[in-house]
């Protein structure tokens, strides 16, 4: 079995142990970058194939789609300044060290986060990068380069902070840029990298960070740019009660009213966290089609609360999943996030209300909808061949009866094979072309030298 399928060749991923797709018990046929056929159980493809991969040991699911992360935070995991704190004190503690971030460190942080996500079965990696200290102006360029090198699909949002402490915001002066600089660079990266077409490997979104560190002007003009370039909008909203209090004090309104005032109440936008919305706000968000990225691991770590996933979906909001930053999750494993989403939402709604299939749907089709993509997130004809294949041959899975439920309930966290756009990018649990041991050593060295407290 070759690492890369020849262009135009037909590959049959045959008779999986289980597959998250209707009418595909016999597997799927991939041609080029797309799925062209679902094969029924005990059947064969309708026409000849060039290669066959025996998937009888594998549980096959759509490639997971991560809709919120902060790659640079892999360098400050479990940092002594920040552990055991809620969001605002956590942020203020880490702002004091994040200004040391260098281009070399950011490149390694991005490479490591992409690799972690890929290994967890993630085929589309979204990142919200909002940190631009002096010297790091080309952050988006770096992330695009690293995604292309690994062959993962990337959704990079050009984040920003323009309100510092002296302006009434949270971050220090060293970490903010003025609105004009942000808007100019937003246009630059959209022109260079954003591909709005189906099957795109790189897309760009605009992501002013949150109400407590950007101006309303930046929010409004980002929305206008998004209309002009046909791209998505992303921000943190409704994450904590402290944010509610800040918005009421600074703007005289709640976060959702703020969102509407700045022109973001539409289906272009998706929000990170979305926890503290009242019933009326949930209805408004759903009616507008605003997406929400549920970040269960981070929300538990910072004790922020639980996203109202079921109510938001019922109201019409797409709901996806994200790992969030690796300093508030402390890893970049989206498959683990699926399990955490299941557990946290069962605690919230009851054991019979949220199933493993709901959690998997949020991480695939729901996340794809947040990104405005109908070409990924499901295993069906015409969609991109983005697939994650897991084996169940570890002790943790022994005795599991329903393979798809076993995957989630018994804690799968590392894919055996991952395919992106019809190409194998992980084989036998290893990313193709990446020396993970060397990456870990270099990344760890820089993390300790730049952000160590000794």
UniProtKB/TrEMBL annotation:
Domain Amidohydrolase-related: 59-424
UniProt key word Glycosyltransferase: no
Keyword line: Hydrolase, Metal-binding, Zinc
Domain of life according to the entry: Bacteria
A UniProt-annotated Pfam family: Amidohydro_1
Keyword Cytoplasm recorded: no
Organism from which the protein derives: Methylobacterium gnaphalii
Protein name: 8-oxoguanine deaminase
